[in-house]
Amino acid sequence: MRIKVKFFATFRELFGGEEEEIELESGASVQDLLNVLCDSDGCRQEIFDESGELRRHVKMLKKGRHIQFLDGVHTELEDGDVITMFPPMGGG
Asked: pTM here?
């Protein structure tokens, strides 16, 4: 299945662009997607904490819904899903 991932703000630099299409096996989860995307130690350290959990500052949406309100990194992906990743935003 094909998943499109859109990156915003500092994640564009971390992942090397604005978006990427990833081919995953049927039944893959957000965790599987992150394992493919985070292909360097530096990237893994930015996205995961010391215990391997997704860092709190990493915001991910599946079809516009925050994965924390779905099944977290265990959220199952479907062919054609669009995942949006962004760091916390601030401003005033």
From this structure: 0.89
